[in-house]
Amino acid sequence: MHAKLAPIGSLVGLLTGGLLTAGACGGGNPLPSTHEPRIIPGGGIGDGPIRGALNVFVIDDDTRNVLSSAAARVGAAEETEPCQALTDSTGLARFDSSGSGSGANADGGAAGASSCKLLTKPVTLTVSATGHAPSTWIGVDGSNVTIALRAISAPALPRATVTGTIAGWDTMPAPAADHNRLAIIGASSNPALTDRANTIDQGTRSVDVDIGGNIYSFDVASNVCVRNSNPLALVNDCNWVLTTHAGAQAHFAILVDQDTKGTPDDDTDDTFTATGWAIKTGLSFGDGTTTGGEILQPIADADMQSFTASFASGPSGLDYVVGLPVLDLGAEGRISIILPALTKTTLMTRVPRLTGPLAGAHYDMIASATDDAAKPMPATLSWLRGVNPSATVAVTSWLPPPTAIAMTGGTFSFTPVTGATVHGAELQTMDGQRRWSVTIFDSTTSFTLPGLAPDPLPLGTIRFAVSALRIPGVDVKNIVFDDLRDVLTDISTDEITYAR
Fold first, then answer.
1. 454 preceded by cis ω (within 30°)?
2. Which residues pair with 208 in a beta bridge?
3. DSSP 8-state secondary structure symbol assigned to residue 328
4. How far apart are CA 41 and CA 362, in angstroms?
5. How far apart are alpha carbons 92 and 111 in whole angstroms?
6. Closest CA to 414 of 494, 500, 499, 471
7. Whole-angstrom Cα distance, residue 137 to residue 128?
8. 4 near 189, Cβ under 8 Å?
């Protein structure tokens, strides 16, 4: 389970995709005199300013594999003579202001580069590939660019299956009448992976229920343990099954008391209270592996501590504030502490102390402000890093969302956010599927998109979402997206819909 609140999920979806991968800035390295091509991990811009040469690598957002035969177009939509090329087997398309289109040039043009006279200043770059949502970058001012495209259909990503239990589950006190004891098992998320690589459908498994001495099988979520107090239908099962990403990670369980309010067939009035934690660190799994017998060890109450937050008022109209402590385990990933969510009325929770297997970890906090829980847009998110869990963690300001978002006659526009480092946009289907992403590195506030065949935008209603990101210290001429996850502090978003 990789549980998170809907507003936070929608923003992170933007952050971890073609807009900007969750992740920051490289130093201002001088431009190599040979304009030597190089892939920038996770995407980004390097070796700026552009200075007459442009090397474009195209990779898959989820797998990071290079994409051959991807189309790269230099020039805004209104450019009458855009420069165009296809990527080769290494995912590279090359452009040079003095190139002839093949071979090396006597005047210094790069071998195999397409001639492009537009490389005298920052450019607009659009890349597209079969089966992927295209991406347009505006204000590109570097000689090396790597753009990640998201596949429209989710690819098969590395997965592992783990089964296990929680130590001492059967000896824990039985739940009170009209209560259930639950345990929700999850894996730490890997910030180097995309959001959908970290968010995995867990499916269901069968548990035995004793009803009047007869055993019946019922389905529950695979990654949940359950013990109830109903004498007429007893269930006690903690043989969880977790589907997780491959690689280094930690596993955890949040123990929860569910109060059914005496209405076991009606979940709408139930309340849930976190009562404990269990964890296991130092794990790693290969793609396609199945591992059994894992035991999560409960964290003693003495090894838990209070975590208190305070929140400044959100931007106008964004009064629903939620905060989540995030346990950062370094190479083993991050765990968001979802119960209870911190709000303006619930300002304290309990979290594991940074001791024992967690001695090398640290805490962050992610906070979001929206209109209400059922309305994810507009929204703003603030990320506080390396916080002290023994002191009050304060969100003192918010980045307001972009305003005046519009689409008229094929032109997209918005009013930018003061203090934002970059702006971005996505065109999505109504179910949230990305169909075109846009990243803006300069002061552009309106744009049109070039025509592509086949048209990546379906007929019907389209979401046009615009985001502002604040990334202190970033140099947009030398930006490595994989580094941004440790320095990005704010992202805000709003959207409109329009009909095609």
1. yes
2. 217
3. E
4. 25
5. 13
6. 494
7. 12
8. no
Alpha-carbon distances of 500 from 385, 406, 427, 457, 461, rounded to whole Å: 42, 14, 12, 9, 6
Tokens of 169: 């589950």
What pLDDT is recorded for position 99?
Answer: 57
Backbone angles phi, psi at 301, to 5 degrees: -60, -30
Q: Assign residue 378 a region: left if phi > 0, alpha if psi is -120 to 50, beta otherwise?
A: beta
Which residues does 57 contact at the CB level (< 8 Å), separation at least 6? 37, 39, 40, 66, 87, 90, 91, 92, 144, 145, 146, 147
**What single-letter DSSP state applies at residue 482?**
H
| Secondary structure element (H or E) that encloses residue 198, with its range | helix 195-198
Gap between the Cα atoms of 468 and 416, Å rounded: 7
By the 8 A CB rule, do 102 and 29 touch? Answer: no
Task: Give the contacts of 231 (CB within 8 A, at least 6 positions apart).
Answer: none
Q: Specify the DSSP element, H or E, that contains 484.
A: helix 481-484
pLDDT of residue 2: 32
* 264 preceded by a cis bond (ω within 30 of 0): no
- Cα-trace Rg, the chain: 25
- Tell me which residues of the chain have a pLDDT lower than 50: 1-34, 101-110
φ and ψ at 12, to 5 degrees?
-65, -30
pLDDT of residue 189: 93
